[in-house]
Every structure is written in structure tokens, then in C-alpha cells.
Amino acid sequence: MAAISRLSGALLPALLLIAFPSTAAEYKLGPMDKLSIRVVEWQTAEGTFREWPTISGNFTVGPSGALSLPFTGELQAGGKTTSQIAGEIAKNLQQKFGLRDRPEAAVEIAEFRPIFVSGDVETPGKYAYDPELTVLKAVSLAGGMRRGETGQRFERDFLNARGNHDVLIAERNRLLAKRARLEAELANAKEIKVPKELADNPDAQKLIGDEAAIMLSRKNALTLQLNALNELRTLYQNEIVSLEKKMVVQNRQKDLMAKELANIGGLADKGLVVNSRVMTLETSFAEMQSKLLDLDTNSLRAKQEINKATRDATDLENSRKAELTSDMQATQAALDEANLKLAMYRNLMTEALVNAPAAAALAGSGEGEGPVLQYSIVRNSGNGETKEIAAEENTPLLPGDLVKAAISNVRS
């Protein structure tokens, strides 16, 4: 049992270490890759594992692609996988010491060789590699586009200000059209007047058309609600008329029953009519009065519902006016803010043009133009030669890649 315990205690770390290289089995090692190596030997006589601490640890692949280890000497690691190196280490140790059982070697990548960023970036240099590293991430690590050149900075300032200015112009035009629609709704006008600020704008008709559609939709919704309330009032008014007619008939029947009861009451006093007949008439008379009270109550309820429908219609109109007024205030505030920002961006563009005359060429350029970074990657082809390939922002990088970034004044 003790031997089994020692076996599992020594074997478990080794198995965990061996499991890692499988995730990068196809990765080819190269100079500056750092490897974590661990070697254990099975001793048949003792039935236990023995670790080789001298050859276990972290080692770096040299500039020539060689890996120098105790006992095994130099191994050519460049262009090989971690599993291939592990096999060579175990084989060399077995041969050197004449071991009956071949040792087990586990090799994993402790740290990939770095990547390099050069060109028009803020801080070119060497950076640690990450398996999910892309060109854009590498350039971000290097601080992004170089900001040291004053002219380029003002060109960027001009382009940013112009872009924000154009966005705000479009937003202001939408706000002007919305304000015109709110003014028309508050005045109960049938059409929206084109604001003078949009008189020469080619998109004015579309903007006003969109707002007109909104106004028509809101008006139709309000009309439907008011019509529903009017129909409800009409329904209750008809109910009141019907109840009043029933009350007239019921009152006439009550009067006739009262006369009959009076006549029978006199005969009952003389003993000419049985009392049961009198009681039946009195009960019917009481029921008639109860029905009249119910009709009167229903009439009052219908009148209350008419008043409530009238109040609801008034509240609906008042709520609409309050909402329109609130929207008008918010729209005007947004317009004032947009105008202030437009003035600020115009001043920024003017400043950029004064400080960098080259930015004037961008004033008439098309949308999306301006200084941008263009990328290429210098990569080791695996046979000792390098090649340069064009790259995009999302191009994935490999360990040892050199990313070259160059500023171009016009986006391709």
C-alpha cells in the first residue's frame, strides 16, 4: 500500500504536466521559447518513480534553435514539437545511463517567444505573445498610432471634429423637423411647415414626411380614444332615456295600484274583502316602489358614467397638450445643445486648419478618408527564411512575428 501511495504521489504531477503539450502539439518551437521540462524514471526493483531534479526545470531555446540540457547535451529544438523533444530527452537519457526502462519526460511551453512591433506606433519594441493575439491587439500594446508628429495630430483633430460635426448636423436637422411637427400638433394644424433652417436642405421633404407620418399616427390614436368615449356617453344617454320611459310606465302602474289598494282597503274595513287580497296588493305595491327606486339608481349611475367619460375626454386632451409641451421643451433644449457643440467643432476644425495647413487637403476629401495605420507581418517561414505578408487588424499573430505599422494619409 505504501508503494502504491508513493507511486500515485509521484505519478500524478507528471501526468498533469504531460497533459498540457497536447493542446499545442502542432506548434513548432523556435528561438526564445521557454520550456518547462520534468523527467521521472520508473524503478522496477523498487516499484516506485524517481524524479530527476537536475534535468527538471525551465529552459530556453537558444538563438540557433538548440536546447541545452544536463546529461543530454544540446538538442535541436527548432522546428520540432514539445512531444518530439520529450521523446528525444527520454531516449538520450536511457542510452547515456543504460537504463532498463526508458524515463518519462514531460515538456510544455512555459512562455512563447515574443512578438515585435515596429513602425509608426507610440512605443515600438518587444512584447509577450498571447495565443489570442491579433495585429490590432499588438498595436494597442505598443500604444497605438504615433502621436509625436504635430501635423498628423492636427489632421486627426480635424477629421474627428469634422466627423462629429457631420453627425451633429444630421441630428440637428432631425430635431428641427421634430420641433416643426410639435408646433403643428399644438396648433391643431393639418400640415407641418418646413422650418426656414431646412429650406435649402435636400433631405427636408423626407424629414418632414417622416414627422408627418408620426403626427398622423398620433392624431388617429387620439381620435379613436375620443370616439370611444363619445360612443360610451351616447350609450349611457340612451340607457337613461330607456330608464326614464320605464319609470313613467312604472309610476302609472303604481298610481293605478294605489287607487285599487285604497278602494279594497275600504271594502276590507266593511268585511267585504278578505285580508289576504289586501296583503297581496300591498306586497305588489311595495315591489313596484322598489323597482322604481332601482330604475332611479340605474339612471343616476348612467349619469355618473357620462360625467366620467366627459372628464376622461378632457383629461386626454390636457395630457396630450402637456406631453406636447414637454416634448417641445426637451427638443428645444436638445437643439440648443446641438448648436453649441456645432460651434465648438467648427472652432476645432478652424484651429486644426490654422496649425496644420496640410489638413486643408482633407477638408474636401470624401467620407472615411484620413491618416490610418496599414499593417504587414514579417514571419519566419520555417526554413531559416523570412517573408513579409499584408495583414489586417484581425489577423492572428504567431510567436516571433514582427508587426510593421505604417501611417497612410488616405484609407484604402
Automatic annotation (TrEMBL):
Residues 23-109 form the Polysaccharide export protein N-terminal domain. Residues 1-24 form the signal peptide. GO terms for molecular function: polysaccharide transmembrane transporter activity. Residues 165-192, 219-246, 299-348 form a coiled coil. Pfam families: HH_AprE, Poly_export. Residues 162-343 form the AprE-like long alpha-helical hairpin domain. The keyword Coiled coil applies. It comes from the Bacteria. Keywords: Coiled coil, Signal. InterPro entries: HH_AprE-like, Poly_export, Poly_export_N. Gene3D superfamilies: Outer membrane lipoprotein wza domain like (3.10.560.10), wza like domain (3.30.1950.10). The keyword Metal-binding does not apply. This is Exopolysaccharide production protein ExoF. The lineage of its organism: Bacteria, Pseudomonadati, Pseudomonadota, Alphaproteobacteria, Hyphomicrobiales.
